[in-house]
Amino acid sequence: MTGVFHLPGNKRSAVVLVSGGLDSATVLALAHKQRFSCHAISFDYGQRHRVELEAAHRVTEALGVVEHRVMTIDWGNIGGSALTDTTIAVPEESGNGIPVTYVPARNTVFLSLALGWAEVIGARDIFIGVNAVDYSGYPDCRPEFIEAFERLANLATKAGVEGVKIRVHAPLIRLSKSQIIRKGIELGVDYSLTVSCYQPEQSGRACGRCDSCRLRRAGFAAARVQDPTRYVSC
Amino acid sequence: MTGVFHLPGNKRSAVVLVSGGLDSATVLALAHKQRFSCHAISFDYGQRHRVELEAAHRVTEALGVVEHRVMTIDWGNIGGSALTDTTIAVPEESGNGIPVTYVPARNTVFLSLALGWAEVIGARDIFIGVNAVDYSGYPDCRPEFIEAFERLANLATKAGVEGVKIRVHAPLIRLSKSQIIRKGIELGVDYSLTVSCYQPEQSGRACGRCDSCRLRRAGFAAARVQDPTRYVSC
């Protein structure tokens, strides 16, 4: 990297939540484009699609980060979601309302841990890839949630008390999946590295039927971009 | 228990954060008094005073809870606090500003996990023993933080979307330590079961010198209540 604005000393640090999926890979590329020095964070929270952590590692390697940390959360077997309780099946058809793949308070927990790390490294910017257009209706993906978390972050922390404004960036929140994909392609994101499926095979193939697969497939189709995902079914 | 209002079926469930310290024990007794069916939660977050988890167990046993869960958080060695990084010494004298025992975003993380559990069990009430009078100046113990978290909780969750109002109770927030102790004594709390010290000895004796010990000792003295704590120093 060259140019005065690219020198590490001139870059502001940001904590970027990287799940290993399509959206957060795009967000990481966007944070880079905005010249942030990116500190990636992923969560091992007992998710059935734990293979996404390997994808998170690939994505951070490919796009480059200052460091990538994985935090582990053991919820004490509270269950309550098809993603953290293997006795609840992942739905393969669209239904009404918030689906059972919703993990109670997940983004609140993730953003809180990201906030803690941001304070430790002196970052005042946090990036998250939530989206409220082509999404599963999770309450913690909506703009009003992000705004409320940002407000909380500025009251919760030493930085906030000292007058440092903490910002929570959700640059994809109002984009469709196809717009996200087109933006990522422009920025050089290799989506073959990412995993969206909630129940991938050991081999890495995606089920093609869960909500997350359906949103991903439809996004690539609408963007008229070749979907690099290996699906079990067509 | 007898009387129609005491029947479990008529009681509303609450999640109560129980650290093993003096404040949260008092809060648990208060939640009981308000006839909540209490689900206690504690956190194993790499704290140097991990012995407080044994105290949490004793307190929940003594006061009675529906269940007591311990959630584990591995922050990925981010450090940043004397409580989670043993290379940073616990201060033994009062200083200015927020002390190094502050754990970045700790109460945001704890309340988030409590919120997730509340959603799973259908509880709409969360109790936390924060205090903004005799405290160490931590930003996430102030009333404005609690209010902002409650607002967030109602946007973050399925319950909130469905119109169920989630409440975060912080009944000690404006009390002095001596008022808290007097209230606890009235409610039959046995403070000998609790641990406040940030750096207790293996034997269980408290250092008597850290901020938390100083606040506790002064609280018992001001309340004119015998302090049951075994201190190393006088």
Count the E strands of chain A. Answer: 5
SSE series of chain A: EHEHEHEHHEHH
Number of helices of chain A: 7
Helix content of chain A: 25-40%
Mean pLDDT of chain A: 91
- CATH superfamily label of chain A: HUPs
Can you tell me the CATH architecture of chain A?
3-Layer(aba) Sandwich
Greatest interface and its residue counts? A-B, 46 and 46 residues
Structure description:
The structure is a homodimer of 234-residue chains. With 234 residues, the first copy, chain A, is α/β, with parallel strands linked by helices. Chain A has a single domain (12-223), classed as HUPs (Rossmann fold), CATH 3.40.50.620. The first copy, chain A, contains 7 helices and 5 strands. The first copy, chain A, has helices at 22-33, 52-63, 106-121, 143-156, 158-161, 177-186, 211-223; strands at residues 12-17, 36-44, 67-74, 125-127, 167-169. In chain A, strands 3-2-1-4-5 form a 5-stranded parallel sheet, with helices on both faces. In chain A, α1 packs across α6 (177-186) and α6 crosses α7. At the A-B interface, β3, α3, α4 and α5 of A face β3, α3, α4 and α5 of B. β3 of chain A pairs antiparallel with β3 of chain B.
